[in-house]
UniProtKB/TrEMBL annotation:
Record keyword DNA repair present: no
The organism of origin for this protein: Noviluteimonas lactosilytica
Protein name: Sigma-70 family RNA polymerase sigma factor
Domain of life from the UniProt record: Bacteria
The RNA polymerase sigma-70 region domain, residue ranges: 36-105
Upper lineage: Bacteria, Pseudomonadati, Pseudomonadota, Gammaproteobacteria, Lysobacterales
Domain RNA polymerase sigma factor 70 region 4 type: 134-185
A Pfam short name: Sigma70_r4_2
Keywords assigned: Sigma factor, Transcription, Transcription regulation
């Protein structure tokens, strides 16, 4: 069985950036950087907010991410057909997780119980029909590590192995947090789980 999310979502970062715009940005064209900022502002902010849970911190992650993109744009080569948006998303994730590690929130909020039950085909979070504001509040109440795993797995389409690498943990940690977070969301949203589905 492969370790893929049930229905990998298309990342909000998946914006096709024209080669001409990238060339202008590499040449230091300010208008090109402004265009990139406008295109990626919302995806970076949303990802940072979902991982960190704090709007002010999400703004800081957005600024740091875009400053790193500007400073390192010459490093992006697009080798093996990798898109610019994937490179930028990786910078944003690293920045958001680095802040959690620095604040020691990844380590202190999550106690891992080896007996924690998880399933390879853990059901996705509640359907999109659920009240978005209620879901957002429920996500905000989860520990940072759990919230991060849920977001990276369901919204960004990362595998448990990839999440483990990003968070410097094991795939079992990712699976455990996904199961735990899904259960907590279901409880918070009072959604009955259909065991016979």
């Amino acid at each position: 069985m492969t370790d893929q999310p049930p229905n990998p979502a298309r990342s909000s970062f998946a914006i096709d950036v024209p080669d001409a715009l990238l060339a202008r940005a590499r040449a230091g064209d300010r208008a090109a950087f402004e265009q990139l900022y406008r295109w990626f502002e919302r995806p970076v902010f949303t990802l940072a907010l979902r991982i960190g849970g704090d709007r002010e911190e999400a703004r800081d992650v957005l600024q740091e991410t875009m400053l790193k993109v500007i400073g390192r744009i010459g490093e992006f080569r697009g080798s093996n057909g990798s898109p610019f948006w994937g490179w930028l998303r990786q910078i944003a994730i690293n920045e958001a997780l680095m802040r959690l590690r620095r604040d020691k929130r990844l380590a202190q909020e999550v106690g891992i119980d080896d007996t924690d039950v998880f399933s390879e085909d853990t059901a996705p979070p509640p359907p999109a029909a659920a009240d978005a504001a209620l879901l957002q509040r429920a996500m905000a109440n989860l520990p940072a590590a759990t919230r991060s795993v849920l977001w990276l797995y369901h919204a960004e389409g990362y595998t448990h192995e990839e999440i483990a690498g990003l968070m410097q943990r094991t795939p079992s940690f990712s699976k455990s947090q996904l199961a735990r977070g899904t259960r907590k969301l279901r409880t918070a949203l009072a959604i009955e789980e259909d065991l016979h589905a």
